[in-house]
Specification:
By secondary structure, the chain is mainly beta. Helices cover about 5% and strands about 40% of the residues. The strands form six sheets. The chain has a four-stranded antiparallel sheet with strand order 3-4-5-6, with no helix packed on it.
């Protein structure tokens, strides 16, 4: 399940050799993003907003949390924004499907909230945090902790599902920023996108693109990066050890997703600055055998599940 840039719908790709299938049918003023499969593969939660019609600059009133059935039917709201301009984004289902964790952005700042999947009641779990990910067994909640006046940089943490017993994974001076956290199916590793490179892994020419990449950019199709940052995917054990890069592509805001068995990672972003290639991509969990499945960039996220039961 993924969201390409050429429309506002969600698309389904069946592996190994399927073609993208359109799952939703949203209008030109509607926008969906960040699809997340339920644990049983029968539902999809996602963020949604609608742009106002008429003249002027189109600004959505807020971003809400919706869900649909796996076949695209049964569209219904799960939780709505509480004040104008607030957004519920980057949903992830809790183990068992009883709730959905979301990143909340509003006038008072950022937070990780939990939404009851039946009642839609939202509760605050971790303030000043975002991009939640829940382990398959439901025992761990990973998230990004944002800077404070006392701590300048972003950092990675995990805790119990209710936010208790927090533990730092990667400290605030390692990377410039983080995005798109995903705990592995076995709950032992964390996949994430980051800007920058730790000093211990930075090669002597880390600030330079590979010469072939420079030639590709000079004579091949260009890739426009939405926010100007160059991102790559990384994996780290939850104890903070074995931090290693998964890609070296300088992607534009990639979002990754583990395969159900944890031996592959799929990702989607705006495209690589070093190769000028874009599209839904699969790579092994060891960073080998990269394969582009589509050729269109996408900034609206993706998720991976087994066939629904």
């Amino acid at each position: 399940m993924f969201g390409p840039d050429y429309d506002s719908n969600l698309w389904l790709l069946r592996l190994p050799d399927g073609k993208p299938e359109q799952l939703t049918s949203f209008g030109p003023l509607e926008f969906s993003s960040n699809p997340a499969w339920s644990p049983d593969g029968r539902q999809i939660a996602f963020s949604y907003y609608r742009l106002p019609g008429g003249g002027g600059i189109p600004v959505p009133e807020g971003t809400d949390l919706y869900r649909i059935n796996a076949n695209g039917s049964g569209l219904r709201v799960l939780a709505t924004h509480d004040v104008p301009g607030a957004a519920l984004q980057y949903p992830v289902w809790a183990a068992g499907g009883a709730s959905v964790y979301v990143s909340y952005m509003g006038p008072t700042g950022f937070a990780v909230d939990r939404v009851d999947s039946r009642s839609g009641v939202r509760s605050r779990i971790i303030p000043n945090a975002g991009y939640p990910s829940v382990s398959r067994d439901g025992r761990r909640l990973a998230y990004v902790l944002f800077p404070t006046p006392e701590v300048r940089g972003q950092s990675l943490w995990w805790s119990a599902p209710d936010g208790s017993n927090p533990r730092e994974i990667v400290g605030p001076t390692t990377f410039e920023k983080y995005f798109g956290l995903r705990l592995s199916p076995d709950g032992r590793r964390l996949l994430f996108a980051a800007v920058g490179q730790p000093a211990t892994t930075r090669p002597p020419t880390a600030s330079l693109l590979h010469p072939l990449g420079l030639l590709t950019r000079a004579f091949g199709p260009s890739v426009a990066h939405a926010n100007g940052d160059l991102w790559d995917l990384w994996i780290v054990d939850l104890d903070g050890r074995k931090l290693r890069p998964l890609t070296a592509l300088s992607e534009d805001l990639p979002v990754g997703a583990w395969s159900p068995e944890g031996n592959y990672v799929a990702f989607l972003g705006g495209g690589s600055a070093s190769s000028a290639e874009a599209g839904l991509t699969i790579i092994t969990a060891e960073g080998k055998d990269l394969r582009r499945l589509t050729a269109q960039p996408g900034h609206r996220g993706l998720d991976w599940t087994r066939a629904s039961r």
